[in-house]
Structure of N-acetyl-gamma-glutamyl-phosphate reductase:
Amino acid sequence: MISSAKVFIDGEAGTTGLQIRERLESRRDVELVSINPAKRKDADERKRLLNSVDAVILCLPDDAAREAVSLIENDAVKVIDASTAYRVAPDWAYGFAEMAKDQRAKIAASKRISNPGCYPTGFIALVRPLAEAGIVPRDWAISVNAVSGYSGGGRAMIAEFENEADPSFTRVPYRIYSMAQKHKHVPEMQRYAGLARAPIFAPSVGRYYKGMIVEVPLPLAAMGKGAKLEDVHAVLAQAYKGERFVTVASPEEARALKTLDPESLNGTNQLKLFVFGHDEEARLVALLDNLGKGASGAAVQNLNIALGLDEGAGLS
Ligand SMILES: NC(=O)C1=CN([C@@H]2O[C@H](COP(=O)(O)OP(=O)(O)OC[C@H]3O[C@@H](n4cnc5c(N)ncnc54)[C@H](OP(=O)(O)O)[C@@H]3O)[C@@H](O)[C@H]2O)C=CC1
Ligand SMILES: CC(=O)N[C@@H](CCC(=O)OP(=O)(O)O)C(=O)O
């Protein structure tokens, strides 16, 4: 346990970096080390800071994250990378503490932690326990549909939706994207859900800032396992029993809902799972803030675990 850990956020002026900074600023057990804004892309100054702290959080595009990792020579520095660069790298710990019983220990023991993608956080939470239980066959042709607020695309997409002077400015209320089935999140979805086949991923973005719904339709009757809706719920409830940041709505709560608002958990590090439908057809839903449990919340949770601090410090 380190009493006051020094932390540098590389990319602290970006969407994710700013939110992490806000979550850490008032902490007494963490001392934030900032870069002079004029030098924030200066490799020498970044290298100095990257090697002078207990932990760094990388909130950069993939290539810049790889460069940052290559600049670290101090073996004591712990790295939490928010980008896609190392999410399926074998020598990195996947930073989804609730994903498996031994995952916290893996995160705590590793100096290289990759923060999960926002969509994969919802997908893996829903599917991994069901694949382990045999309800979802590992070779099932699974699909996942999702909607995100536009902050999911970082500063560039925020400008697209908010800045009328931006050449890409748009007023669309909703749009689908990534139709070529090559989204950067698919490899980590497949790997950590434990599937033999890549899921068909259909993401979309809406004209609102943040919040997301990730949905997995499951034709239970066609899956040949004889699982009923209550079995699906029971597996998920057991998998996340006692977890503070991942909860499963009760069957009564799910039945009472007529609609679901993607913004309901904004500002929190919460991920809430729902099992809708009936015994023949289930609609599994994960609700989260793409900038909360989908990014900055998860990064702070991982930082806390990596430094041996209270896992929930700075999080709600
Ligand atoms: N937004 C989200 O919901 C999520 C984002 N992430 C991931 O987090 C990372 C950051 O994303 P996000 O915050 O949204 O992106 P942003 O575009 O909002 O921020 C990226 C920041 O990195 C800076 N930057 C770019 N290149 C360099 C460099 N070579 N050296 C130093 N700084 C650099 C940018 O500066 P400038 O703008 O001046 O180029 C910007 O401040 C990405 O890898 C993304 O995939 C993860 C989960 C969710
Ligand atoms: C709405 C939108 O565009 N979302 C982004 C995902 C968010 C993101 O930046 O990906 P990470 O979670 O891996 O960092 C996308 O689909 O590329």
Notes: Residues 84, 117-118, 148, 152-154, 157, 185, 203, 205 surround N-acetyl-L-glutamyl 5-phosphate (ligand 2) (CB under 6 Å).
